[in-house]
């Protein structure tokens, strides 16, 4: 009859796994904690910064709390920075861009991923090349083109290039998701008598809501605080967007740093709110577009 002889210094696998798991868990929590601090600290610092006066800001005590909460910085930011007028222009520009990007990218992605034609991959490569073109390299050509089109110094001079630069990444995300949709769904719709547009609108679009939400958020974040194109193509005071408001607090002899911080908080607030409201949609859309495609 055989007997099991224990070997000194060797622990069972299950016991070793139980000892290693808490260590791995601690390392993961430490890494997540570092990531949380690095992401939240700038926002917290900006909030504290916006509640200080100029003396406290210029004193060099970056980590100190304000001795008195300067809520007047926010009233100055709204009144002197033309916040609501610039906010309206930013909303019009961003909303128009998102609608056009969703419309164009969904149609292109549908054609690339669902149709069988030999130039589909070539069109996809062209859109991928568009992702590599830096925005700064197009400033002078776009200015000349918009001047000839008589749309320079209008909101269209912002919307059109925004759509052009946001559409490639939107096509990349949505086409990757649409390729994963079973073709049997379309075949059933064809049997029921649906045409191509009906299939696109009633079958493909409802299924593609997660990547569409991802495209909306990425477009919103990229466009909301864009300054280079807006500063190049817009000079009318009535058409300026939200990033221009910071210049209202800088004069020849003085700078209202507290109001600048308050204005930056107000400018970042819509992005933060929308992101947290649609965070789960972003995750689902990115995973669907990356993994299933």
UniProtKB/TrEMBL annotation:
Topology relative to the membrane: Multi-pass membrane protein
GO cellular component: plasma membrane
Transmembrane segments: 26-48, 86-110, 122-146, 158-178, 199-224, 257-278
Gene3D superfamilies: MetI-like
Entry's localization field: Cell membrane
Broad class of the protein's primary localization: membrane
GO biological process, one term: transmembrane transport
Keywords: Cell membrane, Membrane, Transmembrane, Transmembrane helix, Transport
Domain ABC transmembrane type-1 span(s) in chain numbering: 87-278
PANTHER family in the record: ABC TRANSPORTER PERMEASE PROTEIN MG189-RELATED-RELATED, SN-GLYCEROL-3-PHOSPHATE TRANSPORT SYSTEM PERMEASE PROTEIN UGPE
Similarity remark: Belongs to the binding-protein-dependent transport system permease family.
Protein name: Raffinose/stachyose/melibiose transport system permease protein
Organism: Paenibacillus methanolicus
């Amino acid at each position: 009859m055989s007997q099991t002889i224990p070997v000194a210094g060797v622990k069972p696998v299950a016991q070793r796994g139980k000892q290693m798991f808490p260590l791995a868990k601690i390392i993961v929590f430490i890494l997540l904690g570092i990531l949380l601090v690095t992401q939240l600290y700038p926002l917290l610092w900006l909030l504290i910064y916006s509640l200080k006066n100029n003396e406290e800001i210029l004193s060099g005590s970056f980590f100190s709390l304000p001795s008195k909460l300067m809520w007047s910085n926010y009233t100055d930011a709204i009144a002197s920075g033309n916040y609501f007028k610039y906010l309206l222009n930013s909303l019009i520009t961003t909303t128009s861009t998102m609608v056009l990007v969703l419309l164009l990218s969904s149609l292109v992605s549908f054609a690339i991923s669902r149709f069988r034609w030999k130039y589909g991959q070539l069109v996809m490569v062209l859109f991928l090349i568009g992702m590599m073109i830096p925005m700064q390299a197009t400033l002078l050509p776009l200015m000349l083109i918009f001047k000839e089109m008589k749309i320079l110094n209008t909101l269209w001079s912002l919307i059109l290039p925004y759509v052009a630069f946001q559409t490639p990444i939107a096509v990349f995300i949505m086409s990757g998701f649409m390729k994963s949709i079973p073709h049997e769904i379309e075949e059933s719709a064809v049997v029921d008598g649906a045409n191509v547009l009906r299939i696109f609108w009633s079958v493909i679009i409802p299924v593609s809501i997660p990547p569409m939400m991802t495209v909306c958020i990425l477009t919103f974040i990229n466009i909301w605080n864009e300054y280079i194109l807006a500063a190049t193509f817009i000079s009318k005071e009535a058409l300026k967007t939200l990033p221009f408001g910071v210049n209202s607090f800088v004069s020849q002899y003085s700078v209202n740093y507290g109001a600048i911080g308050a204005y930056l908080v107000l400018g970042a607030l819509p992005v933060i709110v929308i992101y947290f409201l649609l965070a789960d949609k972003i995750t689902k859309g990115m995973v669907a577009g990356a993994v299933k495609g």
